[in-house]
Amino acid sequence: MAESMQGLKRTHRCGELTAALEGQQVTVMGWVQKNRNKGGLVFVDVRDRSGVIQVVFEEGKTEAGLLEKAAKLRAEYVVAVTGTVEKRSGAVNESLATGEIEIIPEGLRVLSESQTPPFPIEEHTKTREEVRLKYRYLDLRRPDLQRNLMLKSRVMTLTRQFFAEEGFLEVETPMLGKTTPEGARDYLVPSRIHPGCFYGLPQSPQLYKQLLMCAGMDRYIQIARCFRDEDLRADRQPEFTQIDMELSFVDVDDVIEVNERYLSRLFREVLGIEVQLPIRRMTWQEAMDRFGSDKPDLRFGMELTDVSDVVKDCGFGVFTGALDQGGTVRGLNVKGQGAMPRKKIDKLTAFVKDYGAKGLAYVAIQEDGSVKSSFAKFMTEEEMASLIRAMDGEPGDLLLFAADKQKVVWDSLGALRVELGKQLELFDKNAFCFVWITEFPLLEWSEEQNRYVAMHHPFTMPMEEDLPLIDTDPGKVRAKAYDIVLNGNEIGGGSVRIHQDDVQEKMFEVLGFTKEQAYSQFGFLLDAFKYGVPPHAGLAYGLDRLVMLMAGQESIRDVIAFPKVKDASCLMTEAPTPADQKQLEELGLLVKKEEKTADEKSL
Amino acid sequence: MAESMQGLKRTHRCGELTAALEGQQVTVMGWVQKNRNKGGLVFVDVRDRSGVIQVVFEEGKTEAGLLEKAAKLRAEYVVAVTGTVEKRSGAVNESLATGEIEIIPEGLRVLSESQTPPFPIEEHTKTREEVRLKYRYLDLRRPDLQRNLMLKSRVMTLTRQFFAEEGFLEVETPMLGKTTPEGARDYLVPSRIHPGCFYGLPQSPQLYKQLLMCAGMDRYIQIARCFRDEDLRADRQPEFTQIDMELSFVDVDDVIEVNERYLSRLFREVLGIEVQLPIRRMTWQEAMDRFGSDKPDLRFGMELTDVSDVVKDCGFGVFTGALDQGGTVRGLNVKGQGAMPRKKIDKLTAFVKDYGAKGLAYVAIQEDGSVKSSFAKFMTEEEMASLIRAMDGEPGDLLLFAADKQKVVWDSLGALRVELGKQLELFDKNAFCFVWITEFPLLEWSEEQNRYVAMHHPFTMPMEEDLPLIDTDPGKVRAKAYDIVLNGNEIGGGSVRIHQDDVQEKMFEVLGFTKEQAYSQFGFLLDAFKYGVPPHAGLAYGLDRLVMLMAGQESIRDVIAFPKVKDASCLMTEAPTPADQKQLEELGLLVKKEEKTADEKSL
Known about the structure:
By secondary structure, chain A is of the alpha+beta class. Chain A folds into four domains: 14-112, CATH 2.40.50.140; 131-271 and 546-603, Bira Bifunctional Protein, Domain 2 (BirA Bifunctional Protein, domain 2, 2-Layer Sandwich); 280-299 and 427-533, BirA Bifunctional Protein, domain 2 (2-Layer Sandwich); 301-425, Gyrase A, domain 2 (2-Layer Sandwich). In chain A, helix 4 crosses helix 16.
């Protein structure tokens, strides 16, 4: 039976108690972490979000009724304990922040009892994630998840404070917006008042924030919920959160400058880590050439080397064939791995095939300078020697090569580099290595749609010096777009936006939009642009990913209070669920599945 | 043609310029507010969110090309002006914060041109709201709306800062949740991966925040978007924002205490207004009896008087009839309005009919002490005299009476009181008058459903001393619920929650839920309650309404960047819109309307 806490007031959280309070009467409230009964002594550990404190009930010292009550406590009972803080009579517990002290109790109330929980509430649990997610309210009692959510809260508070001090206004933009077929798939919300019509949940507040710039808001910030109805990969959630901002009367450098000061303050105040400013910048082209990735992990080297020129006349058809088709041959020098077993190399070959590569060619330089290679027989010794030289190959090194279209080579060697970095532990796990990637291509050729598509979005500004190329060689046009990358993860990205009618029109033309198509989707923005638009630019961070990295976690689910699983369902609430028939009728909707059943019956 | 701002950097916002900067070179960027051409002088007012600055181009002094360019500027062009701050040569403009100074320009760039806007960008516009909402990006340039959004941003920042300092954690709860048929109508979101299944957008994070307390988060805050698919009345939006909080190990007084400190700091720091603490408290019963409202406007008196006892034996059948049916007779003394014309009284009678009253009985006490009354003929002089005495009636007063069921009398006289308060200007418009309303009834009888329904929600804790009544007289049970009322508006409300299994079960029983029904809707919460629940309580403010009152606005649309209109559509984006056929197919949905058309065709 639950006792009331009437008349009681908590004086401290458990973890706030220190030896400085010795002799003082306190009242703590929390969950029973454990309860040990040892020769007339009952030790009860009480836990709350701040930590754990030991309460010692002692035969002869503690009132008999209290002692009996304490002995009956079980894990996860909620209790209120009033007592006096004393230095521990027994050994100090070094593993506990409050390990020097204990409470000698004068009062105990059981505020709520508990059944035996389905898994113990402890750090570094081995319990399957499915079970933890079903009982998320218990999982969230574990100190590691509590720390994660406390860190996230701190990040959000500090973020808002920083940007408020910098003159950014927090403005809420609508969740029930207009759905557009462009880009990722929207979540739709049927309208009851307008049957057959739908709102779209925002994939980002992009259009609204640009409109706020048109509206003269000057600087905007929002920690905004965003939605994407895509098949979930690891580390994707159907709803996720962006730190979203936009600034008027600025260019690339202004956005970068304020965000560097933000990141520096965030990491200093939350993690006590100094971010070296200015953060290094790298063009997209350089990042791809050197690391095969637009989000390079700079905690380690092992860069890609372009050996196309070296092998262009060699005897190995895989290399020359790729080059003949306009492709490229690049290699990685895996230092000191010349003795890697063939089986392991085969695994790496399987790995790159996921990225479209047909295979990996390798050269293992033995300690005696001789060479084991999958393709030595197709090359002269001289060709091999110059290839090794080009790769800075030394005895004991393993050289890995991919030959294919440029994109395939970048993707597969870029991923392989990161994979090897992890496997070989080439980097400091506690390092935080930032880099800005700039000058992204404006457009990407879509084989599927047989047209150019915007690499960021259709409102991204081309670089002024590349404007003349937009008619002659659109694929070469670079954009005023930038990503901020941390340890190989894109944590944010943005761009300067187009604010000129004529450039925007040209952009839609290149993207193959008719005027009507552009208007039906973005009409209100194009209209707004007729009435005086300030030059503006913005950036958005993925909050969950940022916090995940700051917390040293592997999954964004560990920094989200109530995440969804891969099929976008919630294991705790079981959402989504079938709707009430009445609700569907009000919306003027029919669920097709049921109709099919009816058809089948009529057959 | 738009010029680039490359090479230019804004040094100040327009409103930041002061006489202290005299002689200094500055660059401002903003919109042309107006442009006057006067005998070789061109005066250009440049506006941004901070204010307006005058730029003076002068023949002979300004370079000719610049002067010509300036003369061609039109309203809402976006410009960058570089020049020197000087004391005004002409008269100081007292109505402008920067009225002492002007810029003598050395450079001018037109960053963006503008068509003539559909309405002028000015304060206190007379433009129809429909037009303003269609061009919201222009409407939001008006200084009054800019001030509102800046105020709202300030409120949000300060709110988060205050609660973070008080140990509250900001935790994000899901938007894609489980839909429940109880309460207001949910917005549904069809699932593509689970065809025929739906998420519900949250009406509030109520269940999640209680789960966070179960999870040991201790104190939670979120500025949370909420959704209700109801027919919109004035001042309702389909999506709205709550300042939502929950606290563990607390009772009513703790919640009130921290929120009083919050309100006091908020009003001091944002408006410079001192809130008198502690804020007055009034039970629900007292508020209804004295003001006919659970959100009384205490900026003025004119309280209701119960005259049921006085008139119970009188000859006026309307009074005694109402009393015979268990009703009540109450009156308002409208001081000094004894000479109110009959026509005006008739209008007030029509007014109360909207609240269910059958009419208003009146007594107008003339200056000479004689009486004009709609019912004097049914009463003896003595009865009338004692009625007037009971009402503290004096010569020149107007007494208005309603006789009906208690609820009807409260509603109609409560509304009439507020209406007369406005018409007769009985209160100081700049006053902020807070009151806590406490001890709400736990249950309300629903005629429609022929059962008790929860007045707040099914998790509200009954007052301990009323627990025995829950079986014998459930309508009499008071709840540990509280509202915070400002100037006759409920700006927030909350309650202590049930944290005991047995009380919760009893509650569902009284509400007529079977165990299965309770489980199918709230199973995960009831499950959570088996594993140790801390006593907890919470509160939520309606952010939009709070900011509306702080900004002295009449409509919440004036404090929301992109509001919707009465039919829940957005006049700017035209959302909601018909969905793409492909999107519907992916969701396994059919729009019924189209089906009907097909049927009709087949007839």
